[in-house]
Amino acid sequence: MIKMKKLIIFIVCLVFFLSSYSDINIETGSKHRDLTSLPTSDKFKVWDLEEAAALKGISALDSIASYVTDTTTELNYVLGRELHLGEIDSAKKVLIRDWPLVRWGDLFYPPQIPVDLTINNHSEIKFFPKNPSLGCLSNSPLRYGDIEGDGQKELALFLSDELIVFSPQAQKTVFAMFIDASDWWSWGEDSLLKTYLQDHSGERPSEELLYHGNSHNSSDHAIRGNFYPGYRAYSKMYVGDYDNNGSLDIVKWQKIYRSNKKTESPAWVQILNEFTHYIRDETGEYIPQEDTTEQTIQGWLTSNNLTWQKGFPSKSECAGQEGQLIPEMHDPLLNDPDVLQ
Length: 341
Description:
Layout: H1 2-20, E1 26-28, H2 40-55, E2 64-69, E3 75-80, E4 84-89, E5 94-100, E6 142-145, E7 154-159, E8 162-167, E9 172-178, H3 191-199, H4 219-222, E10 231-240, E11 249-259, E12 268-280, E13 286-288, H5 294-303
Antiparallel strand pairs: 1-6, 2-3, 3-4, 4-5, 6-7, 7-8, 8-9, 10-11, 11-12, 12-13
């Protein structure tokens, strides 16, 4: 029970820290090895950690993408390219524990977004995010916190625009959500348009055919001249004891927008504005509550003065945009007054 309470405290502090940059002891790990250039010291560190995993015969950690170090104990948490987590004592070169990382059972790709699952399998965690990822959060995919100084850490991962909270104590994912489940692409001087021009004697597609945001999932149709509307889908997380029962809750606020044609206005139309309430069970996992009405959840947010911009995530980590609102999630072109508050 004590460990579970510490897990809850961590999640609250994680959200508060990442959105407001409060002085709380939560560390950001190394940059994503495949998305950014690692300093030489980090490269040597990764090789040492891979050697420790190899001594235990854990092939899923043969190639490590990111690590984070507990400077107090010198223990390292690592993320392997095969979606595997590990806890390593780097001084002794010993792998202590490891866990496969799988899709959380209560996370599903939004059914409002049409997708050909034979081409895009959204039922599994994706290792590589869109580049750049939303707010560049996936550039540092692994983070941890030791809130009460007792050596018990919880991990927060940003993978392919999915937020995953993993508890080493519970040895499982306790919460996850898509911070960005969008499928859209603005046609410009990119490879898709170039392919289209090659197949259509250099003639650009008519404005009457294009959308403000075209479906990227249907790009194979687009290069042949058949265009489909794009979708933008974002989620924010809020943590607090909203139902006043002495236990903390998670609220997820999800918005989905569909694009209009280039010749139509507004550019985007909201098709979903959904609130979900999660409570913690005896194992520390957060379970969605179907009985909590959206009106009730909206009342909680309103009474606590919690707007869209105050949810997590909101702040960008992209170069030149650090600390600013993530542009995609707060775009005036979404034609939604919520995103401006």
